[in-house]
Amino acid sequence: MQKVEAIVIRERVETVIDAVEQATGHVGVTVVEAIGHGRERGVTHEYRGRVFESRFLPKAQLLFIVPDAIVSDVIGAIVDAAHSGNESGDGLCWSSPVENVMHNRTGASLEEVETRV
Amino acid sequence: MSNHDLLVASSTIWVVVTAILVMFMQAGFAFLEAGLTRMKNAGHIAGKNVLIFGICSIVYYLVGFGLAFGDGNGLVGTHGFVPSVTELTAVGKAPFDWFSEIPGAAGYLFEVVFAGVSLAIVWGAMAERAKLWVYFAFGIWFTITYSIVSHWIWSPHGWLFKHGMQDFAGSTVVHYQGALAALAGALILGPRIGKFGTDGRANPIPGHNIPYAVLGTLILWFGWFGFNPGSTLSVDFGGVGYFAYVALTTNIAAAAGAVTGMCVAWVKLGKPDISMMLNGALGALVAITAASGFVAPWAAIVIGIGSGFIAVFGVIFVEKIGIDDPIGAVAVHGMSGVWGTLACGLFTVPLLAKNLATGSGGLFYTGSFHQLGVQALGLVTVGAFTFITSFGALFVMHKIWGIRVDPEVETGGLDVHEHGMWGYPEFYIPVPGGYGTETHGHVGPSHSHNGHGVTPVPASTPEPV
Prior knowledge:
The structure holds 2 protein chains of 2 kinds.
Chain A: E1 2-9, H1 13-24, E2 30-36, E3 43-47, E4 50-54, E5 57-66, H2 71-82, E6 93-97, H3 110-116
Chain B: H1 3-23, H2 25-35, H3 42-69, H4 85-89, H5 104-125, H6 132-154, H7 159-162, H8 171-189, H9 210-227, H10 243-269, H11 274-291, H12 297-320, H13 329-347, H14 350-355, H15 363-366, H16 370-400, H17 407-412, H18 414-419, H19 425-428
Helix pairs in contact in B: 1-5, 1-9, 2-3, 2-5, 2-9, 3-5, 3-6, 5-6, 5-8, 6-8, 6-16, 8-13, 8-16, 9-10, 9-11, 10-11, 10-12, 11-12, 11-13, 12-13, 13-16
């Protein structure tokens, strides 16, 4: 199994999840409200005509656990859907192998559970 | 002081105090509307109540008060524009001789806050998607058309006044008119992004702060004790101290509306929805506005119960036909305004109509459809006039400049895109270390690139006010 993680802007969360389902049929995600910044180092705001900087921007971290076979499709769908057209801040996406993925309710491994369905 | 001076003094105190109560209803609208919409628009929606009351107050001083209450013909006032010091301080003198027991200034104050309320209603249905400049342009336009209709019904020269139309404090003039413009705006703007799914089914977009909406409703209820009882415009219209009775019918109707709204929602929707209870109370206040001086307490309860039903079924109906009305202005102010205006034709006590020298008794007492017909005539003509002028003006503005914000502005929120700030900054600008700490900010005046070399942000320095 593989863990696919993505940092995306919050407005795109549902778009990305839908895109993953459409492209690969994968259902199931964990969303963590996150803050952070990339090379742009945050953003400049103005308040009453004064400029101030905010290092962190609101983001969301999405977490998918998927079979090895569809990882590249999932990542492709995320990258495509997370792209906002803005100059920066669209986040990153990556995958890593994970072991012993267990299904809490049944106590079986996730692979078993999914093949049963 | 003579007895007449005492009458003028006490009437002026009463009218100015109630004008201030009604002005405070802007705070009620601010909290109600902000509470029932999303947090990304909270600053904009609360703040616009100050903006539109500002616009309305100026326009009403320049032309509105003259159009509405200046001497003139049956359709429009033609005197009293930009009223002078003499005209505003005189009591019962032309061009404002209608205000026989208060100075012209008290008349202006009391009437301008009503215009402000009517204008506040307009934006409820247009919330979360209209451009800011529309508030300026349509605010001026609506204040003028509002003034013309209030001349028809409230000025002694007005043609509907002469027919004996009963609208004690403005179910038609204030609420129905505001709702008509709101409906026009909602139709032209179209629904908010995501309000209706691809299959046409309505998605709920929950308000972000129900306690705000509750506070707003209570402030409006409070303000209504100025709205209706103050419309006596003196301490002895309808009898000395009659305004106390008007306050009683107002309160009793609102109470019935609140309880009915919650119960109807409980039965119809399966849950005792809090926002529907608020709509029930407000709808009842809207309906009793026309009838408050004319009906018996039992009728006030009936009117309130009717509004409780209208609030729930009206909101559902408006949504069903594909209109996105975030606050429920069309149902609460429009449908209940119609109900309250017609209720006069049903329940007006002949004695009270005689005391107030307006119209005649309702169907229930007299068996005559006369008063009901007059009320209906008023609703049809005002409906046609206000809807057409509002729809026309907004339609032209929309065709030429576009009155709806771009999709990315709507998605990101009006607070940041229109005003460059947020109602709740910390939600959108996360500051784990807090503002002005060493760990916050990274490109200040003495910007350094060495890792965490950050400087306190300029916003932390004391600011001249």
